[in-house]
Specification:
Helix content: 25-40%
Number of strands: 10
Strand order of the largest sheet: 6-7-5-10
CATH architecture of one domain: 2-Layer Sandwich
Structural class: alpha+beta
């Protein structure tokens, strides 16, 4: 005899029901899933660049800064310092050039020497000998202008013919530059001849030459005897 579908049957100590409708006696429902919550994220805040500079200008300034930073080296700094010192010296020289002629005394005589106003006071001066006639003030200045404390250079020439007397002077405002120039430039070619340098005793030389010039002018001014008078 076939068993009834709705009947129950026993196996051991457990009782099982064969009713299909009673397999899940209680309906099973999944809990509802809550909808996703979207949080409002504030937009990112970036630092605002100054409005006075546009982006191309800022990039250009940055490139210039980096280029200048790479180009700055000890030699460049020294050249800048030398240029500043040379500018100050030129300013002092212009001031000295505006001074009045300086009175001089030697051998009991007094005169006014206008050439001394062209040179700075208390300078350090080199005597430059063996100069050819082709050497002028500019050529002599270019030979010594690389020294930071170079003041000026002058070639002494004859007043009438304008030919060089074969010597000149170079002025420095620092004794170290004078010593360096004397050591480095002595025997070097300036123009067509090797220059001969030594520390100048220009004050005594100027006094002696001035006295000789005055004596020569006084001799020329003596009255000549008339050949008609005995």
């Amino acid at each position: 005899m076939a068993p009834d579908d709705s009947a129950t049957w026993h196996s051991g100590q457990y009782t099982y029901s064969t009713d299909a409708t009673s397999y899940f006696p209680i309906p099973f429902h999944l809990p509802p899933v809550p909808p996703p919550v979207s949080l409002a994220v504030p937009p990112p805040v970036y630092p605002v660049a100054p409005t006075i500079f546009s982006l191309p200008q800022y990039q250009q300034a940055q490139e210039l800064f980096e280029r200048d930073a790479q180009s700055i080296n000890p030699e460049a700094l020294e050249s800048v310092k030398a240029a500043i010192a040379r500018s100050e010296i030129e300013h002092k020289t212009e001031t000295f050039n505006k001074r009045k002629p300086i009175p001089r005394k030697a051998a009991g005589q007094t005169w006014v020497d206008p050439t001394l106003a062209e040179w700075p006071e208390n300078d350090y001066r080199l005597f430059c000998g063996n100069l050819g006639n082709e050497v002028n003030d500019d050529i002599l200045s270019k030979a010594f202008s690389r020294y930071p404390f170079f003041n000026r250079a002058k070639v002494v020439r004859e007043k009438r013919l304008g030919k060089t007397k074969g010597y000149g002077f170079v002025s420095f405002s620092n004794q170290a530059d004078l010593v360096a120039a004397l050591k480095e430039m002595n025997g070097k070619y300036v123009g067509n001849r090797p220059i001969q340098l030594k520390k100048s005793d220009w004050k005594a030389r100027t006094d002696t030459e001035a006295v000789e010039t005055q004596k020569h002018s006084q001799k020329n001014k003596r009255p000549r005897k008339n050949v008609l008078h005995k």
